[in-house]
Amino acid sequence: MTRYNAIEIERKWQDRWHNAGCFHADIDRAKPKYYVLEMFPYPSGRIHMGHVRNYTLGDVVARFKRAQGFNVLHPMGWDAFGLPAENAAIERGDHPAKWTYANIESMREQLKKMGLSYDWRREFATCDESYYRFEQKMFLDFIKAGLAYKKESWVNWDPVENTVLANEQVVNGCGWRSGAPVERRLLSQWFLKITAFAQDLLDAIETLDRWPDRVRLMQHNWIGRSTGAIVRFDLDVEAPDGFDHIEVFTTRPDTLYGAGFMAISATHPLAMALAKDNAELRDFVEECNRMGTSEATIEAAEKKGFDTGCFVTHPFDKSWKLPVYIANFVLMDYGTGALFGCAAHDQRDLDFARKYDLPVIPVVLPKDANPDEFSIGKEAYTGDGTIFQSDFLNGLDVPSAIAAAIARLEELNKGSAKISWRLRDWGVSRQRYWGCPIPIIHCPSCGIVHVPEHELPVTLPDDVSFDQPGNPLDHHPTWKHTNCPECGEAATRETDTFDTFFESSWYFLRFADPDPAIAFSKEAMQYWLPVDQYIGGVEHAVLHLLYSRFFTRALAACGYLDLAEPFDGMMTQGMVCHQTYQDADGHWLFPEQVEKQGEQWLMRDNGDAVKAGRIEKMSKSKRNVIDPDNIIETYGADTARLFMMSDSPPERDMEWTSSGVEGASRFLAKCFRLSLAEDESRPLAPVHTPIPDDIDAKAAALITLTHQTIKGITEDIERFRFNRAVAALHTLNNAINACDENSPSQNWARRFAAETLTQLLAPIAPHIAEEMWQQLGHETLLASCPWLVADDQWLAIDLISMPIQVNGKLRATLEIEPDSDSKVVEAKALAMDSVQKYLAGQTPKKVIVVPNRIINVVI
To answer: Which of 165, 194, 324, 411 is deepest in the core (most CB within 10 A)?
Structure first.
C-alpha cells in the first residue's frame, strides 16, 4: 500500500487480531497479571466522544502492559438496567429489553471499530438473567449476615409517577421528568448496611495511594466521621405521646452556652406528634415534605421555622429555657434529626435567629479581641479562639473546652461522647420495572420469606404495560402472585427492584470469571483482583466507588472472596469539550452547521452570522457534539485515538477541534511514509540488518535519541503522561526525516528509529502501526511483540524532555541537558521551527522556564 487508507487498514487488522485471539485472557501463573478496566457504559444506543477518550486511555494502558509481558485482562460489558429503557417503552412503545439489546448491538459495533483490545468472550449485560441471578443470591446472603434489612425511611416521592426519586432526580423541588412537586413519604425500603464498614472504609482510604487526591478526599468527606457528643435537652413539660426530652448530636459541645434555640426536623417523631392536633403545624410539615430529601435543595431553600410553643431546658442550667422550632433545613436522616442553634458561630443558625428574633450569644472570642467589644453582625464567627461567657469553660481553647463540656455532660447524666457518621445505609429499593427483582416473598403468615436458591433467578415478566403511572410490576395481573415457600399459602412477591448501583458494584468481579455455574471462583479472584487500573469519570468518585468498596467487604464477610479494596489504581479522565454556537434567535447549532470565514463564524447553508460561545463539555442539549462514527469514517479510529492522547493530560478537560484532528491525521500519514519501501530517494536498511561497525555522528545522534525516546515514552505511559509521549513521537519522527544523508550507518539508524517509532506508536494508534510493521518487512503481529527496552550504553548523553506550551497548549518538546541555564533553554525553545510557526514573527510577551519541567511561551 502506497497511501494511508484508514478504513481498509483498520478493518484488516481488527480481523487479524480477532482471528489470532490476541486479546484473550486466561489464568497463566507463569506471567504477572494486569487487570485494566474502564467503567462500563449504559447502552444508550450511540457512543460519544467521552466514551472514545475513556476507552482509548484504557486501551493504551492495556496494550502497553501486554507488550511488557503482563497477562492482561481487559473486558467490556454493559450497565444495562435503568430508567432510560422505561422512558423508551413509554415514548416509543419499545419493550425495555428489546430497546436495550438493540442498543448494545449498535454500540458494540462502534467500539469494535475503535480497535479496542477487549476480550469480548467475557462480555455480559447486567440485565442478563445469567448475571443478576447471582446478585439475588448475594442479597439473600447479605440478609443472613445482617448486612441487608428492611425499614421505613423518608424518601422523595413523585406523586405523578408514583415512584421514589433519587436526590439527583429532584430538580428545584420537582420530579425531573413529571415536573410535579416532590413529597417526602415514609416508605418501607430495603437497605444495605454500609455503615457496618464505615471505619474500615475511612481508614483504608490512606492505602489508596494510586488514587487521585481529590477522589480520596471526596470519599473521606462522604463517609464523614465526626467526633462530638450526644446531648439530652429535657422538655420543660411533657409533650404528646410521652416525649420528655430531645437528643442532639453536636461536634461543638464547647458552644452550648451560646445556644439560642432548638430546631427539629419536620419528620421528627415529636414534630409529627405535635402536628396531630395542630392544623397550622400540619400545613408547615407538608410544606417541608414537598422539599424532598436532597441536601443541595434544602441548603439552597429559604430557611423557615415553626414555633411549637414547647421549650427545653439547658443541660448545664435548668433555669435556662430554649424555644423548640420545627425547621425546614433539619433532616431526620442526619444526626438525630435535631440540633441546638448557636447563632453566633454558625451562619445558617444566625440567619434563622435574625429572621425569628432569637438570641445571638458569642462564646468563642477571636485572638486579640476585646470581650467587652466583640459582637456578631451579619456574619457568624466560625474561626478559632478562646471560650468566654461560658461559666466553667471560660478561658479554655476549643479542644480543651470540648473535652471539659463532654466530661460535665457525663457527670450530669445529660450526655456522652459519641462518634457520628455522615454516611447512611444504602437504600436499594426502586419502584421500577427495568431492574433486578428483589428475591423476597411477603407471606401473611410467615412474614418476609427468601425465594429459595433453586428458584433463582426471579425474572421479570415480558408482558408488561406502561400505560399507567407507577411500577408496572404492581399492575401486572399475575406476576406478583405466588405461594409462600414455607407454608404454601398465597403470598406476594416483592415488586421493588434493585437500585442500578447494585449491579455496577460487583461487575468487575464477574469479568474475572464468566463461569455460568457460579458468580466467580476464589481462584479467579486471587489471580485477577484487585483491578490494577480503573478508569472513569470523576462524577462517579463518590457513590459508585464507595458502593463497590462496600460490596467487596460484604462479599468477603459472606465468604465469597478474600479482598478488601477492589481498585488498586484509579484514574479520572477529564471531559471532552467543544465550542458552542447559536444562531440569531438563540438556537443551538451543531459544529457541522457553521464555518469560520476570517474572524467571523457563519452558517454554512445561508451565510447568516453565528454567535460563537464558550467552550463547554459536549452535550446534546447545546449541540456541541461530534459523532465518533463520522470521525472514524472520515479520518480513521487511529486519528481519533491519537488526538485524544495528544492534546491534554488525561485528568484535564480537552477541547475537540477540527484543526487538531487534521493535525493528528497528517502526523499519522507522515509516520506511514517512513515504512514505504519504494521511497528509493531515502532508502532504509533491509530488515534484520546488523548494526554497522562504523557509525557516523549523525547516525549516532539518531540512535541516541531513539533510545532516549524508548525510555521517555515508557515512563510517560507508566505515569499516564500520554500527551508527552505523543510529543516525543513527533520529535523522533522529525529526527528520522532530518537524517537524510545517504550512508549505510544513517540508513541503518533510520530503519532502527522507524521500527522503534512504529512499536512505540502501537498502543496509541495500533492499526497503522501494524501496517507499518508489516511494510517494514516483519511477519509477526506487532500486537504480540514485546515492548522495547532502552540500551543504557546509548543513554550516555543524558537529556531531558521539556514540553513547550504556547498560550497554554503543548506545541513542541525540547531535548536538553538537565539543569541548563534558563536563558539557554529559552533561546533553544524559541529557535525551534515548531515554536516559530506559532510565534508567526511576534515577540513573546513572556517566557516562563520552570527548570527541568516546562517552558511556557505567552504571546
So the answer is: 324
